[in-house]
Amino acid sequence: MRRRPSPAGRPASLLLALGLLVGSAIHADSSSRSPRTVAVLTTEYRHNSHADVIASRLVLTDRLDGTGKESPLKMVSVYTDQRPQNDISHLLAASHRFRIATNITDALTLGTGALAVDGVLLIAEHGNYPKSPTGNTQYPKRRFWDETLSVFRKSGRVVPVFVDKHLADTWGDAKHLYDTARELGIPLMAGSSVPGSWRRPPRASVPGEPLEEVVILTYGSTDHYGFHALECLQSVVEGRRGGETGVRTVRMTKGDAVWTALGERRVDPDLLAAALERLAEGPLPVSALREKVGKPILWEIEYVDGLRARVLELNGAIQGWSGAWRRPSDGTVVSTQFWTQEARPAAHFTLLLNGIESMVLTGKPAWPVERTLMSSGLLDALLQSGLRSGQTLPTPWLAWDYSTPWRWQEPPPPPPGRPWGEQ
Fold first, then answer.
1. What average pLDDT does the chain have?
2. CA dist 234 → 5, 11, 30, 33 (Å)
3. Which of 61, 63, 137, 148 is nearest to 103 (CA)?
4. Do residues 401 and 244 make contact, with C-beta atoms less than 8 angstroms apart?
5. Is there a common fold for 14-193+346-366 and 198-339?
6. With 90 as the cut, is the pLDDT of residue 15 above it?
7. 14-193+346-366 has which CATH code?
8. In which band, very low, low, confident or very high, does the pLDDT at 404 lie, cut at 50, 70 and 90?
9. pLDDT tens for residues 84-96?
10. What is d(CA 104, CA 108) in angstroms, rounded to the nearest whole number?
11. Average pLDDT for residues 2-27, to the nearest whole number?
12. Residue 310 to residues 35, 75, 94, 121, 321: CA-CA distances in angstroms?
């Protein structure tokens, strides 16, 4: 099969070449310093927000209570776009001596007039922001990114950036982040905490093995938790034979039409049954779905190489993520639960932070940002299909390929959890 250009095209411009040199120079310049300093840019910083369960580990250890492992990164500044009454950033700053920045430039320069940190964490997941016509929350990721780029350009150097969850809520903005990162040679990583978390049982697709169909189950809000499901999907399929080939079409079906789709076997019944057996609440028969689920949603994704993916949102019946696929070599159905610690300290975020730490220390992303670019584009396209009454939507902008050496590995057991309300 002929390989297609990457989503950003081939690096040919002088600006890109210069950007890569700048990125390399920054990494070399900071390689002997420890700990590495990071700025946190977030929409709001409250107890159990993503800013808390990611960034607070930099000052409260990985167990969020001062008793765990300390991070090699040092949080030196925080910018919060909104400050609710239960904001904890100022309290943490008073006890841990980091800067509360008045704007993004201040967070990155620490008042020096030039870039003064070794890494940036862009965490935009909570707060009072409008919804797009598709139902996706319009977090200010592009604004945060562009203001960060302005500091990089004026300073003549770049540092690694991590973007929590999707790159942006629209394909255009997500592609903008990706393209400008490549242009300037910025080490960029993004994504969900779920793909690298625990799997019960510990199952992964076999690297280099062909895949024909994958079923993923999800719950919660379609835009927020559906994104996690797409990241789980990509983490399973991106290592198949030939690597990721891109997506040809998507389709979003809602309500009773989902039961019709199941009756038409548009979802492999054996894979659906296997995924339902892996739920945290215990096995659930397919026959129980219609009674329990009032508003089902089905996402159908057709890849360029013929792979079919089906994602089912089953609110009312499940509270977690699971998946199943069949090994063509012997027809064996493989299924697993994508497990997260839904209690503080939410140790799956420790696993996410470990990847961020690796990138800031080495300048090399721990997993491919292309996974998150694809997941971001898929979410936007699927929600657009939903606006079109479930029409099949061709996605030529997603028909690009990538490959990655990343493979899921079983993490060490998580520490004991405690109720979310406990500090």
1. 92
2. 19, 25, 33, 35
3. 148
4. yes
5. no
6. no
7. 3.40.50.720
8. very high
9. 999 999 999 999 9
10. 6
11. 42
12. 44, 40, 48, 32, 13
Q: What burial class does residue 320 get, using C-beta atoms within 10 Å of its C-beta: 0-12 exposed, 13-18 middle, 19+ buried? A: buried
362 phi/psi in degrees, rounded to 5: -110, -15
Residue 361 tokens read as 């220390």
Q: What is the pLDDT of residue 328?
A: 85
Q: Give the span between the Cα atoms of 227 and 244, in whole angstroms.
A: 18
What DSSP letter does each residue of 24-86 carry, written as one string? HHHHHHHTT-SSEEEEEEES--BTTSHHHHHHTHHHHTTTTSSSSPPPSEEEEEEEES---TT
Choose the CATH number for 198-339 among 3.30.360, 1.10.730, 3.30.70, 1.20.58.
3.30.360
Whether 31 contacts 11, CB under 8 Å = no
Domain definitions of the chain by residue range: 14-193+346-366, 198-339
Please tell me the distance from the alpha carbon of residue 363 to that of residue 357, in angstroms, as a whole number: 10
Question: Whose structure tokens read 């159990």?
Answer: 48
What type of residue is 128? N
